[in-house]
């Protein structure tokens, strides 16, 4: 049976990529018995005290945003030697490796690294960030060294700004847009596309601190704020 892997990733403005090398990959010795995936959406005016006009029986919910996907599962770590794949590796060593990959602060990224989780077809290439890690030590040797531990892990979906912009593809001028510049794009053209108003290009240039808005570089990420 294939084992679940949790791989450290590098992050650029446009993509998240798994890193190679044994030090960047945590492989479970005992696969989780189950896992949970959570999806959510936010709606404005969904409660009685939000957006309800006087005289109306109930507010009309309006879509606000999609929430990042969450994945959670439990892992069992064994250091008794009973599990062949874990033989020769202590529980502490297994925990430290997982913490180093998914939890430790990265001075280069200024945040913990994103990871990629792979297990089977349904949980393949899920890229996320660890938001919660709980450890219960359940078995010890006579000296108090932990021989078995149960871990609860929760991850939130990791996306780059470029990925968010491409997935959203939202045309509303009342929302902030993040647009990845393509070959041939100009600021007036993008303003026409988003605001239906070419004249907004100077305001957008100032908002993005552009020194030369006439020469946009492909793959640059630009923010288009709400404008009236």
From TrEMBL:
Superkingdom of origin: Bacteria
InterPro entries: CIS_tube_prot_N (IPR045361)
Region feature (Disordered): 1-24
UniProt domain Contractile injection system tube protein N-terminal: residue ranges: 2-163
Residue stretches of biased makeup (Polar residues): 1-18
Protein's name according to its UniProt entry: Peptidoglycan-binding protein
Species assigned in the record: Yoonia phaeophyticola
């Amino acid at each position: 049976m294939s084992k679940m892997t949790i791989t450290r990733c590098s992050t650029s403005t446009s993509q998240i990529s798994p890193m190679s090398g044994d030090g960047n990959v945590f492989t479970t010795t005992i696969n989780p018995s189950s896992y949970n995936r959570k999806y959510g959406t936010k709606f404005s005016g969904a409660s009685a005290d939000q957006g309800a006009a006087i005289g109306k029986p109930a507010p009309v919910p309006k879509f606000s945003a999609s929430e990042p996907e969450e994945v959670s599962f439990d892992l069992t770590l064994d250091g008794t030697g009973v599990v062949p794949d874990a033989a020769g590796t202590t529980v502490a060593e297994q925990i430290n490796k997982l913490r180093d990959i998914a939890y430790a602060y990265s001075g280069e990224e200024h945040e913990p690294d994103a990871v990629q989780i792979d297990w089977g077809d349904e949980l393949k290439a899920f890229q996320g960030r660890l938001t919660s890690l709980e450890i219960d030590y359940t078995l010890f040797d006579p000296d108090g060294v932990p021989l078995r531990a149960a871990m609860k892990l929760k991850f939130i979906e990791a996306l780059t700004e470029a990925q968010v912009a491409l997935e959203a593809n939202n045309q509303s001028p009342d929302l902030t847009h993040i647009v990845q510049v393509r070959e041939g794009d100009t600021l007036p053209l993008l303003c026409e596309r988003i605001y239906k108003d070419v004249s907004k290009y100077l305001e957008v240039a100032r908002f993005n601190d552009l020194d030369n808005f006439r020469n946009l570089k492909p793959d640059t990420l630009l923010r288009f704020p709400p404008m009236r």
